[in-house]
Every structure is written in C-alpha cells, then in structure tokens.
Amino acid sequence: MKREGRRSVADVERSVRGDAAADPGARATVVRAVLWMVVGVLAVRQVAVVLRRPPGERLTDLETWTGATGVLHIAGSLYDPGRFTGTPFAGLVLRPLTVSAEQALGVVWTFGSLLLVVALGFVAVRALPAPVSRRTAFLAAPLAITLLMVSLPVRTTLHLGQTSILPVLLVLLACFAVRGERLPGVLTGVAAALQPAVLLFAVLFWLTGRRRAAVSGGATFAVCTALAWVVMPRDSWAYWVHHLAGAGLGDRPDSLANQSLHGALLRFGLQGPAEIALFLVLAVVVAVLGLRRAARYARDGQLLLAVAVTGCVAVAVSPTAWQHQLLWVLLAVVGRAGTRASDRLVWPAVVVLVLTLPGKMLLPNVGVVLPVRDNVLLIAALGAACAVPFLSRTSPHWQRPVPTDYAKPVPARFGWVPLLPVWRRVLSRPNLLLELLLIRVVYSVYAKVRLAATAGRSTAEEHGGQIHAAEQWLHIDIEHWANHTVVAIPWLRDFFDYYYSTFHFIVPLTILGVLYVRRPSDYRWARSTIGFATVLALLGFWLYPLAPPRLMPGLGFIDTVHGVQDLDSPDFGALTAVTNQYAAMPSLHFGWSLWCGVVILLLAPKAWMKVLGLLHPLFTVSAIVATGNHWVLDAVGGAAVVGAGFGLTYVLAGPRRLRAAGDGADGVTEAGVRPEPGEEAPAEGPVAEPAGSKA
C-alpha cells in the first residue's frame, strides 16, 4: 500500500496526455502565437529595463558587492549592514561570481533568470492536474510564462538580482521532472539551503508516504548548511544565531515588504515576547492545517496544488517573506474553487490581480481597509493554505460545473446595426468580491491615465482659448455670467460647491449597488455602458488637454470650490501631480450624471423616481458651469461619450430588454433575471428563460 501511494504521488500528472497537445484549431494557433509574442516582448522589455538603469539602481542586491573598479567582490562578512540577505550557503554558491565584471554579470544574470522563468513555466504546465483539454494544453505554456513574467515576485527578483526563482524551480523539478526518491530529496534540500522555509516540503514528502525523499531532503539541507558553517563560520553564526535565521536582515521586519505572519503582527503594533509567542502559535496552526490540506490534494492527484499550498504555508510561517519570495502564491492559481461555471474564474482572477498589481491599486486609501491592503499578499497565501475550498477531482463539478444561464438574444430594433455574437448576456449577478476588485483596478488605471494625460499648461490654455472662442461664436458662452451670479448668492454658491464635490461618485455607485442587488442582468448592462464611456473619456483627456475656465488667466473666473489660485506662479502646473486639472474635455462630472439620469429613467418603477433622476444631470451641469470647473462644450463632450458608451454596449450585447419566458420572438421583459433559490421573482415583469441548460 505504501509503495502504491508513493507511486501515485510521484508519478501522477507528470505530463499532459499525448492527445492533449494536438492542435485544437486555427484560432487557438493564432492566440498561441500572440501569447508567445507577448512573452518575447516582456523578456526584451525586462532586459532593457535592467540594463538601462544606472549602476546602483539595478540588481541592487548583487551590486552590494560591487567595488570601486566595477568588479564584484566579497570582503569581510556577508552580512555587513546593507549588504547580503541570503543564507550563508547562497553566499557560498554565489561567491564564484565575485570575479565577474558588473556589466557582464548584469547581462548574464538577467538572461539566466529569464531562462529559469521559462523553465518554471514549462514544468508547471507539465504538472497541471489531468485531464487537460487540448485547448488548455495548447495555450498553457505561453500563458503561464506570461503570468510569471508580469508577477510582482518575478519582477522584483529580476530588479534586485535575487535567487528566489531557483528554489521554486528545484522543488518543481523534484516533484515532477525526476524519478526515484533520493534525487527529489536532494533537490529539495538544496532549495531549502537557499530558502530555509522550503524545508517544509520534506514534511509534505513524509505525509504523502515518500519517507526516503523526506529524509534525503533533510539530510541534504543539513549537509549544505554544515558546509557553509565550515567555510564561513562567522557568517553562519551571524545568519542563524545573531539574526535568527535571517529575520534581522534586509528591510525592517515590520515593513510592508515583509508579507509573513511575523511582519503582519509587527505592523499591528505587537512587540516583544507576546508577539513572538502569538506568531509561533499561529505558525503552528497554519502549518498543521496547510500541510494536511496539501497532503490531501497530493493524494487526490493535484500535486501541483499541493506544492502551491505548501509554498503558501512557507510564506506565512517564515520570519520574513519578502516580495521576491512569494512566487508560491501564484502557483495556487491552478486550484479549482466554486461549483458554478460563473464562479470558476474568481479565485484565479483574484490571485493574478494580487500577484501582479500593488495593494494600493486593489484597495483604496481608506482607514478601515488598510489592514487588508497592507497584507493582501499574506491574506492570499493564508487563503490558499488554509481557507479556499478547492474542489477534489472526484467532485461531480470538477469537469462539469453548474452552467451559466444566458439570456436568449433579442433582435435589434435597428436592422442595420451589426450585432456581434461575442458578448452574451448573463442573467445571474457577478461575484461581489471579484466585481469590487475589478471596479477598483479599473478606477486606479483610469486615475493613472488621467494623471498622465497632460501636455502642459501652455497647450491646455491654448485649447481653452479655442473652446472659449467657439462658444462665443455659438453664443453659448454663459460661464462667466453664471459664475459671477452664483458667487453673489452665498447659499446658492455653497449648494453648487457641495453638489460638485459630493454627488459625482455617490449617485453612480448607489445606482450600481441597487442594480447589483435587485436586477443583476441590468447591472451588467449598466456597468458596461459607464465603463465604455469612461474609457472613451480617457482618449479625450489624452488627445485634448483643456484648461477649465477657473484656470484661464485674464478671463476673471472665480474658483468657488478650490479657492483662489495663483495663476502667475510658474510652478502652478505642478498641481497636476495630485490630479490632472486639465482633464476637462469631456466632462465626466456631467457624463456620469447623464448616465445616472438615463438609467433611472429607463429602470425606475415610479414616476417621481424618474423625475429625480432627470434632475441630477440638470443640477450637475449647472454646478460644473457655475463653479468655473467646466465649459459648456465640456458637457456636450460628456454627453457624447455616454451616448457612445450606450451605443457600444448595444452593438456588443444587443438591446437591454430581454426575451420573456414563454414569449415568441417579440416578447421582452424588463427584468431579465432568474431569481436565486429562496428569492422572489422581480416584480417588474416575467422571468427571462435562459438559453443554456438548467442546473
């Protein structure tokens, strides 16, 4: 029985089935070629980024050894302040590099690291849990390498010149590329000598019946560490005893870069023996839960997921887990969580977002979410190790998740519109966690592009003069009159200032929240329309930077919201470091308010609600003009991008209203949503019949 268990864990999923590598079609071939092209572009870009940095800013961890002559050297202790942070064995392995010239080492090191990433991607794809579809096998390798290259751990590793990719690759080779018991243990022991927390994989070997591999791994680790003690006793004492297995090296242990339980507890304000005791207790709990789960997944035939879970345990229980050591979390993307097809991509999407984007892009700078934002990588690791309910391969939903309900297509009202069959209307509401993350990421990208989309003060003021002249020609230049009229009426000025500053975000978010809860299908439609409108507005900000009336010198406008501005200061344009004040055309203040009015007009069940909805864009356009923040033509631009947003959604997804259950070709409904179990059907109309099979 033991031999059979060892064979099943050691040999399962060593390679994708032979027929899975067959060409699945011309479309997949094109996609695969594009993905490989992306891999090549990313590799070239990474080499260029590293080599274009001046000395002292590239491969910073390696360049701590750089001498005055530009040749690497090690003099004295490895662990002098601000120098080496790896294990003594890592220093022993890297010592031959001290004869390399800095420039040559930068090129060789970067290319070598990229080759390790490519090898890691191929080995990970080879380890995917079977059965694997032909399309997945065909596209998996370039997609995996792309994800690895854009991930924060790999990018940080290539920037710093660290060795953290090598332990991950050695463990994957031990589990999936070599046979027998002794060699896998040796590879794992060497990996642990480079990164001590990797020794937990010896425990995984033991729990899955591979006792000889576990013993071999532990012995190899001991031999490598002892060899470093013999060659470098002073450095070994400094690392293992003085710095407590490296815990005192590198950045401060309470810095955001340390995504371990120890670092999180320090950031929460715990110090001294109490913090150490709590950390040890939590580390034991996480290790027990995580390793038991890993062993279960290994016996289930998901050895790659077991490796990822064990790596996530190592991240959490290490005294320090720097960003370049968190590649294990990305491997957890292979876990399947969720019984419904609509939920199957939630976990992979969350992992990819967390491992590729900084925390400040995922969560806002709000006090209540700061603990989550500051520890988002640790939370992802803990989730993979202890909490996320990954499916077993014996689950009936492993290969056949509950299908997604799609609405039946409704013919377009205008026959000349070429509807595209690429965007099917989903009836159920999207996953809330993933939706909030995506909304935040999209808004972060929007804010960054808006901030970068400026051509300077002179260009913006020139465009402002053009808009002012056009309005004078059209006899709609009412901004100056409106601005000074409102300034003369204090209560009206206060009202418009408050309205301008407050309702821009509150009303759209409220509408989306209500639609998400009450009318999921219409939520997806509304979210798409405002998303398209916002993307189109970014093009306007980029192509036509425009100074608003309040920033136009010599026209006499009064900035009622921001106060008096010193337009004569040559550094005035530096205010765009906070927000691009020249992103005035089109006006999203008016565009989003018009979107709100249209959505409320179409969907609100009561007449008084529709009236209130129409008042919002009226008040908004009055506020943006009266406060001097926009020209009248800016509002016209905002209306144009919103109209284009509705038009694009119509072209991609068809009409908003959906076919009613039991009706013929002309039957439509305002609801378009199948109620969840235990929910009542929407009162606005009959329930739409999905096109797919019922769950």
Keywords:
disordered N terminus, 695 residues
Overview of the molecule:
With 695 residues, the protein is an all-alpha fold. It is 58% helix and 0% strand. The protein is built from 27 helices and no strands. α2 packs antiparallel against α4 and α7 packs antiparallel against α8. The longest helix is centred in the C-terminal third of the chain and has 29 residues.
In terms of DSSP E residues, the strand content is: under 5%
Quantity of strands, as a count = 0
Mean pLDDT: 80
Count of discrete alpha- or pi-helical segments spanning 4 or more residues? 27
Q: Any idea what the shape is?
A: globular
Distance between the termini: 40 Å
Spatial extent as radius of gyration: 30 Å
Structural class of the helices, strands and pairings?
mainly alpha
Order of helices and strands: HHHHHHHHHHHHHHHHHHHHHHHHHHH
Uncertain segments of ≥5 residues (pLDDT<50)? 1-22, 573-577, 661-695
Instruction: Classify the helix fraction into a percent range.
Output: 55-70%
Specify the biggest β-sheet. Answer: none
Itemize the secondary structure elements and their pairings.
Elements: H1 2-11, H2 26-52, H3 88-94, H4 102-126, H5 134-150, H6 152-160, H7 165-176, H8 182-194, H9 200-207, H10 211-231, H11 233-242, H12 261-267, H13 272-299, H14 303-317, H15 327-331, H16 346-356, H17 359-362, H18 370-374, H19 376-387, H20 432-452, H21 457-474, H22 479-487, H23 490-518, H24 520-543, H25 588-603, H26 607-626, H27 632-653
Helix pairs in contact: 2-4, 2-5, 4-5, 4-7, 7-8, 8-10, 9-10, 9-13, 10-11, 12-13, 13-14, 13-19, 14-19, 20-24, 23-24, 23-25, 23-26, 24-25, 24-27, 25-26, 25-27
